[in-house]
Amino acid sequence: MQEPDIGARAAQKQILAELPSVDRVLGLPAVASHVGQFGREPVLAAVRQMLTEARAAILAGQSSDASAWNEAAIAQSLEARLRRATQSRLRPVFNLTGTVLHTNLGRALLPEEAIQAAALAMRNACNLEYDLDGGARGDRDDLVTGLLRELTGCEASTIVNNNAAAVFLALNTLAARKEVIVSRGEQIEIGGAFRMPDIMVRAGCKLREVGTTNRTHLADYADAIGPKTGLILKVHTSNYVVKGFTSEVDEVELGALAKERGIPLMVDLGSGALTDMTRWGLPKEPTPQETLAHGAAIVTFSGDKLLGGPQAGLIVGARDLVAKIKKNPLKRALRVGKMTLAALEAVLALYRDPDRLAQRLTTLRLLTRPAADMHAAAGRVLGPLVAACGGGALVTIEACNSQIGSGALPVESLPSAGIAIRPARAGKGEGRFLKAIESGFRNLPVPVVGRVSDGAFRLDLRCLEDEQGFIAQLADLKVKS
Ligand SMILES: *Cc1c(COP(=O)(O)O)cnc(C)c1O
Questions:
Q1: Does the Cβ of 101 fall within 6 Å of ligand 1?
Q2: Residue of the nearest CA to atom 1 in ligand 1?
Q3: Of the CATH numbers 1.10.150.50, 1.10.3720.10, 3.40.50.720, 3.40.640.10, which one belongs to the domain with range 112-360?
Q4: Which of 5, 21, 466, 474 has the greatest number of C-beta atoms within 10 Å?
């Protein structure tokens, strides 16, 4: 790098000398109003940071002239800094990925009833573990046990942090130092770190695999039962299908075998729809009620998958086994808080009235939205999107398929409609264009998450409910090409 000449140095000194002091910046009326909005300490920190960066830029010879240091410019730069610094890390986004229960985007959206119930529990003292009838200490699980009994026919229930915790706690309670019989066709891994064999080890159980990847017969289970057997486990293989020459033992047969041999059958349902989804034209998912009726002693499922509630793991089943699970000291480590229970109770209550469920339960409302709705929405957002994306982009309406997500029903899809954005001229630079478009949408005030596939950035409109909010912020779309 060349040394700046004497004249340049003098100019540099001059600019540095003209930099306002911290106190002077703080005294500017526009900045004083920032203090009112963001607080004195954050504004002071932002002013110091801004001046330090300005000094460094001047010394590096990158600085502009001192006229940039007028009050309006300072106030604007500070405001941008303060907004960035004080923005929540957890932010709402538009989930236009086409996956309704998107694990990375927070899975189920909760109905207003659940939101209000959780807010009430947060704002007030509540009878979380207090029996209002007897005036004595209560049990937090009792808040939802009645509803779960009514909805699933279970004798007893307990709630933990998520379904992974439910499986872990049940295994640890019912089969520590014992063998758990599982079909080789059900050795699942779900999204990252939940692998059945690993969970078994951590729960202190010994995995006893039976059958083969594609075929397992009743005799395989029967032959494996011995003095060390603690549980028979059936796992609903929710995130894949084994097709072709396959055979699995259904719960009715397995339930009968388990009863005959005096070994409890546990079923990990994964998503576990609480009601028959075929009523709304959705694919069939096993319900806890039928699984229990088929002879399972313990059934576990998630709160925030098809159930449409908060993150939770629900354990339902036989009274004696649930009582043992509740006594496990690990239950205390895995239990849920009042917000979760409040939201769960409100969501379960909606299931009492199946006729109105598809309007009231957000997840179900989104899953049952007819494709014509999304086509109509696409027609309304097309114009604003064309305008926002500029001449370099070709924006079209396209039919697409949504996914339920969270491992549920992977081979089924739901007809939907959305927007595809591709470069106006195909060829070189397509990858860069798509990256720029994707990042432009991600950097909107309410980030829009879509998906890139087959040479286009795609927005599935199934989960777009706030159309006005979506359109209003398109003016801020910046596509860096
Ligand atoms: C999703 C799933 C789990 C894990 O449930 P979380 O609520 O995410 O912890 C466990 N088993 C099966 C079969 C699943 O589908």
A1: no
A2: 270
A3: 3.40.640.10
A4: 474
Q: Does the beta carbon of 405 lie inside 6 Å of ligand 1?
A: no
**Index of the ligand 1 atom closest to the CA of residue 165:** 9
The CA distance from 110 to 173, in Å, is 31
* Residue 128: both structure tokens together: 């979380």
CATH architecture of 94-102+367-476: Alpha-Beta Complex (3.90)
The per-residue pLDDT for range 437-454, each reduced to its tens digit, is 999 999 999 999 999 999
Residues of the chain with pLDDT below 50 are 1
Q: What is the pLDDT of residue 481?
A: 66
Q: Is the CB of 272 under 6 A from ligand 1?
A: no
Residue 270 CA, ligand 1 centroid: distance in Å: 4
CB 347 within 8 Å of CB 114 = yes
pTM of the model: 0.91
What is the crossing angle of helices 112-123 and 338-350, to 10°?
150
Residues 476, 481: Cα–Cα separation, whole Å: 16
In the reported structure, the alpha carbon of residue 271 is separated from the centroid of ligand 1 by a whole-number distance in angstroms of 7
CB of 162 closer than 6 A to ligand 1? yes
What residue ranges do the domains of the chain occupy?
6-86, 94-102+367-476, 112-360
Sequence-ordered list of residues with C-beta below 8 angstroms from that of 258, at least 6 positions apart, any chain: 232, 264, 265, 295, 297
Gap between the Cα atoms of 350 and 397, Å rounded? 35
For atom 15 of ligand 1, which residue has the closest CA?
270
415, two tokens: 């007809």
* β-sheet bridge partners, residue 396: 420
Q: Does residue 161 have its Cβ closer than 6 Å to ligand 1?
A: no
For the CA of 166, the nearest atom of ligand 1: 9
Say how many Å lie between the CA of residue 239 and the centre of ligand 1: 10
User: 145: which residues sit within 8 A by CB, 6+ positions away?
Assistant: 156, 157
Structure tokens at 209: 């695999």
Per-residue model confidence as pLDDT tens digits over 252-311: 999 999 999 999 999 999 988 999 999 998 988 899 999 999 999 999 999 999 999 999
Return the closest-CA partner of residue 179 out of 233, 248, 251, 234: 233
Count of CB atoms situated within 10 Å of the CB of 374: 24
Residue 407 beta carbon below 6 angstroms from any ligand 1 atom: yes
